[in-house]
Structure formats: C-alpha cells, structure tokens
Fold:
Amino acid sequence: MELEMFGFITEVLNNLEGMKINLDIASREIENFFEEMLEHNNEGYLNINSRVKSKQSLKEKMLRYDYYTQYKTPEVMFDRLSDLIGIRLECRFIGDEATIYKLIRKCFTVSSKTYEGFYSPEGNKNLFLELGSKQPKSQKNGMKMYRIDGKYLFDDKCYNFEVQIKSLVNIFWSEIEHKVIYKNYNYIIADRFYKDIMSSIKNSLTTIDQQLLLISNQFDRGDSTNKSGRKVQMEQLLSKVLYDLFALKIKNSIGILIDFRKSCDTIVKYVFRDALCDDEKLYNETMVSVFSRLNEIEGKEVDFTTQIIFKRPCEAEDAFTYKLVNFIRETLNDEFQWNIFFRILFEIEPDCNAGDLEKFIQFYKNRFYSSINLRSLEKKISKEKSLWIMDELMEHFADLFIRVNTVELLYNNVIEQVISILNNVLDAVSRNIFTYEDWMSEKEIYMQLLELRLSSVLDIDVEATKVLDFLDDVRKSDSNIEIHKSIVKYIDKL
Structure:
C-alpha cells in the first residue's frame, strides 16, 4: 500500500498542472510590470528573470519540509507557499540591491485592506508586496538577501510569488552554494569545512564587487560626453596645473616643498564661481582667461618670504564677513598655510588684495547660504526671521572659525561637512522652534550643538564636562534634540 503522503503529493502536483497556464500568464505580467518600473529608473538594473515552480522542485520541497503533515489540503498549502512564482531582479553591484529595494518601496505605496502589511502600486490593484518586514532577510546560511513576498490577483484567484534582488556576484555565489550545499544529497565528509569555504568565497566575491564598483564609478566620473563630467575633469586638471606651478615657485622661494593640494581645489572652485552654470561660453571664456593668467605667472618670480600688503581697509556688509575678513587679514602674514592660500589666490586674481579677499569671503559665505534648507523653518516663523536665525548661527560659526584658526576650514571637503552639520542643526531647530521667541530662549543649546559637532569634524579636543553640561541643558529644555554619536564620544574620556 502506498504511503499516504505520496497520495497528497500526487494531488498537489495535479493541482499545479491545472494551474500552470494561469501561473505562466501571471508570471509574465509580473515580470513586465517590474521591467517597466526599473528600465528607466535605475542604472544599476540589468535584467529580470521569472520562473514558475516545477513539479519536481515542488515535490522535493514538500518532502524536505514535511508539507504533507503541515497542511490538510492542497489549497491550504498553495495559499501558504510563498514562492510558487519566482521573480529575480538582477543588478550590477551589491550596493544596487538596496537602491532597487528603495525604488520598489517608493513605488508600492497603497496599503492593502485585505492583506495586512502588503502594498500595491498606484494604478495596479492586482499586485501586492509585503513591505512591513525588515530587509534584507537573513538566510539559513547566515547571509542576507532581499527577498520580498508578493501576491498577484489573476482570474479571481490569488497567487503567491517571491521577488529576489541580486547582484551579479550574489547570483554567481548563490547558484554555486545552492548546488554544492543546499541541493547536494551526497554524503559529504567534513561538511562544515565546505560551508566555511563557501563563506570565505562569498567574502572574497564581496571584495571583488567593491573593487569593480570603484572602477565603474571612476569611469562614470570620467565620462567626457557629459557636460558636468567634462567640467569636473577640467577643474581637476586646472587644480593640478595650479599646484605644479606654485609648488615649483615655493620650492625656489623657501627651499622646501609642502602639500597645498586642497587649497588649490578650493581656489579653482572660487575662480569658476560665476561659470559653474550651464553657460558653456562663459565657462570656456573663464578657462581661457585662467590659463592665460597662469602663463603670465609662470614667467614671474613669486616671493613667499615677504608680507602680503593691503592698500586699503577691507569692507564688510554683515557680522560674519566682517569677522572673517579682519581675522584673515591679521593672520595671513603670521601663519604660513594662510599665507600660501591667499598669495596664490591674489596672484591669480590680480585685483587689489583687499577687494579679492572681500570677494572670496562673500563666495565662501554664499556656499553655505545657497546649500542650506530653510523651507521647514520658514513655514513656521517667516522667511525673514528664518534668515535671522541662519545669520546668528553663521556668526557663531565665524567665532569658531577664528578660535580654531585652521586653513582646513576653507577646503571643499570640510565646507561640505559644515553644510551638512548646519542643515542638521536647522532641522532640529525647525522641529522644536515655533516662534522667534522660542529661538531666543533656546538658541544657546543650538549654538552649543553646532560647536560640538564642528569640534568633532575638526578633531578638536573638548572637555567631557562641557559635553555633560550640554546634555544637561538639553534635558532641561523644551527641545527634543537627537544627540549625534560624534558628541557622545567625548564622554568616553571620563
């Protein structure tokens, strides 16, 4: 007499055969949806594969996981089986997997009233994905994979499917691992050894993925057919020319060579301040003018041992500009890195030194104001008062600038970090401040927050007691401020 379980399996496989036409149609429709969604929205996406579970595969799964004891009828089993249809979204790099998942979450926004935790895209009421659980999911082998359960309504029936997002490296590894470990039914001595080897191979493939990504990014940045890419290349070239030219002059003047490459990057950004738009003609004219000026400087002797002279006082329209202009003017003849930065700047911009310094500080200030998001705050306390708050934060930054006294604050990478910190501080302000009077009563906390975050970026020592006092002020205040981990590190000194 045949075992009862085989009768159940035969019934399930017969049902599968009867569903095959509908499953094939549903599989193609799901595949077409994801292909249209991804084709023009993600450059990392490569391909999509779909499959309907075969009778042999389903039979193996039922025996391996004892489905015949868990489910009373084939209908219940098909309702619980998550991967009757399999959809695999293939991408180039491991990092692209997260990008595609975020795009899916952005597309599937309509919450299902029938299936808890499932969402459908706008305009498609037949397709659902479970987006409530954490991704990527951990596998039995300890690795993580983006695996999303789905449901598709077709011909008045609901079919379960599974979406996997896999990079080329993970496709390669999982196919081998599936055959060597998961579906290898031969008796293998030292099975643990093979699993450890597979894990090691996975780590090596992940490293290769990162290396290929670096190469790809480099080629993307070097795409000379792209206007912005060409401009970046030209600015990098100009920065190198600038460095090579003045490095030789510094060596001839003081007898040693020093590193001022980051100064050159900022100076080039300043030189092209009016030509960074899409005006190709203006950009080209600026480029020709700069190279012409560098050609003049090449035949000129530049003495880095003499003082920089200002023929008139510097002017300023606001507190931030006034403080920085006067600080730099007083400092640049005393400290060599400041002297190099502005001597090169003044050589390239042959106006009066005072005028060049004023224009540079205005450019420096505009880099912050043009990158700061005040919209949320403006909705609460008006545009004018939001700018007042911004001005106060910038004046405090000017005080920190003077206290820190490092030319690194002019470097592009530090400027970007300061912009990020200012945006974070202003985000905290917009969440907690509802009137300008609120700001006046709480502003010292935000000034301290700005100071501690900047100190961390510049790796400046801060007494742990000062941080504890700040945390105590936050606790006593009405503001709900998230304490960044860069601030907490100062407490570890206690």
